[in-house]
TrEMBL record:
The keyword Translocase does not apply. Residues 16-45 form the Zn(2)-C6 fungal-type domain. Pfam families: Fungal_trans_2 (PF11951), Zn_clus (PF00172). GO terms for molecular function: DNA-binding transcription factor activity, RNA polymerase II-specific; transcription cis-regulatory region binding; zinc ion binding. SUPFAM superfamilies: Zn2/Cys6 DNA-binding domain. GO terms for cellular component: nucleus. It comes from the Eukaryota. One of its GO terms (biological process) is positive regulation of transcription by RNA polymerase II. Transmembrane segments: none annotated. This is Zn(2)-C6 fungal-type domain-containing protein. It comes from Trichoderma asperellum (strain ATCC 204424 / CBS 433.97 / NBRC 101777). It is found in: Nucleus.
């Protein structure tokens, strides 16, 4: 039997081992280790896959490229703090048809914080205490006079259990329950208030019932404005009824004083600022337009000294509110005619020369908190500057860099920076029209935040949304000079109902 030769095949790798490959030498590819590594007494790296990590110092394959910093010139585009809603308003700004047929896309949000349950009717004394009810805080600006409208409304609601007192009480309860997010209770009290008001109107010859009917009518109109599902027609009916009672009861009387004067001050304040809101809300009905044009002639029914006094609840004098009402009337006659120009110039001179003086006893600590004089005088001056800005930017149609608007805004921002907060929506909106720089805009937002923290039950949250929308429209306008009247009309008209600036 012949002997067969046995051939043994030594396995070899398909490629060189990594050590030989890196050293760039020949490799016999023997497995498990090559002869070169065995001869050099090195650990053979084998023939497995190797992840392609860059070696230390290999700049060509570095994980992070060492690229020197370079400056790139930006183009003309910028990112804006806007939404699709703002862009839609921007494109509709100069569309006349959309101005008339606009459908509101945003409604004022409800405050996050909820007030305590109302206590009306549970305790009729003391009238003057430190805790002001939620409804009164909601519908009035803060004033620390003991005989201001806050105390007046509480006295009216708690006088007795007659229909006129119940009308005021139920109306205030309705507003309180509305912000407690209890819609059923709010609607129930609103219906009770309407029924009681009808009974009070039957006794309108009684001076006390007449005053309570005026207060209840205004409260019900405020309820309709604040109610998310409110109807503008109902709102106008209540306010029209309020103005009708005022006109029939007080227009022929001279120098009304005391609580009746406080009530008329409050009605006139809301009348002027409702007029401002309706003027720039393009969906107003003919009835609303008629209400906006109805004047109270407040100067004829209060004393001259009362007419020029700074009232804590109003924030300024009745005389300045009268000038604001006249400025709103001039918006409809905005043209280049000499007659219109002369009227604007004469009104500007009157606003500049107005003398608003604090009330008597402003320094009495038992009636006022510390710093009341400074706060009242500062807010009144800011109101004066805001009316000048409105007259110049909106009525006259001047640009933002006009001398009157620029100087008024500079002083207004300085006063706002010193005061730290401002809870007057009209003032903040007018300053926002002039706040085109980041520093001024941050100041406005900071002041609003402080005011909201101090007065959480207010319309300041919706005011902030209005201001941000105004800024978005200004930024979308670009380098072109934005028309303040067109922007104001666009933003205000985007509401389902006329927004409140009281």
């Amino acid at each position: 039997m012949a002997t067969e030769e046995v051939i043994v095949f030594t396995p070899r790798g398909q490629k060189s081992c990594l050590n030989c490959k890196h050293r760039k030498i020949a490799c016999d590819r023997l497995m498990p280790v090559c002869s070169s590594c065995k001869r050099r007494k090195k650990i053979c790296s084998g023939y497995d896959y190797n992840l392609s990590w860059p070696r230390s110092g290999d700049k060509r394959r570095a994980a992070t490229a060492a690229v020197p910093p370079q400056k790139y010139q930006t183009d003309t585009f910028a990112f804006l703090n806007t939404s699709s809603w703002d862009v839609m308003l921007h494109y509709e700004n100069f569309d006349a048809k959309s101005q008339l047929n606009r459908v509101g896309v945003w409604t004022p949000p409800s405050p996050v914080r909820s007030p305590k349950l109302p206590r009306f009717g549970t305790n009729k004394c003391p009238i003057y205490d430190n805790e002001i009810s939620s409804a009164v805080r909601l519908i009035t600006s803060r004033g620390d006079l003991r005989q201001d409208v806050c105390g007046l409304l509480r006295r009216m609601s708690l006088t007795d259990d007659g229909v006129s007192s119940l009308a005021v009480r139920y109306a205030m309860n309705a507003i309180s329950y509305l912000y407690l997010k209890k819609a059923d209770e709010a609607t129930l009290h609103q219906m009770h208030a309407v029924a009681a008001l009808q009974g009070a109107i039957d006794r309108i010859k009684d001076p006390r019932c007449r005053a309570q009917a005026i207060a209840a009518s205004l409260l019900l109109s405020l309820y309709e404005v604040l109610c998310p599902s409110g109807k503008t027609t109902v709102w106008s009916v209540h306010f029209d009824g309020c103005m009708t009672i005022v006109k029939s009861s007080y227009q022929d009387r001279r120098e009304i004083e005391g609580e009746h004067a406080v009530l008329l001050d409050w009605v006139f304040y809301h009348s002027v600022l409702y007029k401002f809101s309706l003027q720039h809300w393009q969906q107003r009905t003919p009835q609303m337009a008629a209400i906006a044009q109805r004047d109270m002639f407040i100067a004829q029914i209060v004393s001259y000294d009362h007419f020029g006094t700074i009232h804590s609840t109003l924030g300024c004098s009745l005389e300045l509110l009268e000038f604001l009402s006249q400025a709103i009337d001039l918006v409809n006659n905005r043209d280049n005619s000499k007659r219109s120009s002369h009227a604007i110039y004469d009104l500007e001179s009157k606003i500049r020369d107005i003398n608003q003086h604090p009330c008597v006893g402003i320094d009495r600590e038992d009636y006022h908190v510390s710093g009341s004089r400074k706060r009242y005088v500062t807010i009144a001056r800011m109101y004066q500057l805001a009316v000048l800005i409105y007259l110049d930017r909106v009525v006259r149609g001047s640009a933002a860099d006009s001398r009157l608007s620029r100087t008024s805004a500079e002083e207004g921002f300085a006063l706002l920076r010193d005061l730290g907060l401002c809870e007057r929506p009209f003032i903040m909106v007018m300053l926002a029209l002039q706040a085109e720089g980041d520093s001024d805009r941050l100041l406005v937002l900071s002041a609003l935040e402080n005011a909201i923290n101090e007065r959480p039950l207010s319309n300041l949250t919706s005011t902030e949304h209005i201001i941000r929308s105004i800024w978005a429209q200004q930024d979308l306008q670009g380098n072109e000079q934005a028309d303040a009247s067109a922007i104001l009309n666009t933003v205000v008209s985007s509401y389902d109902i006329p927004p409140s600036f009281t």
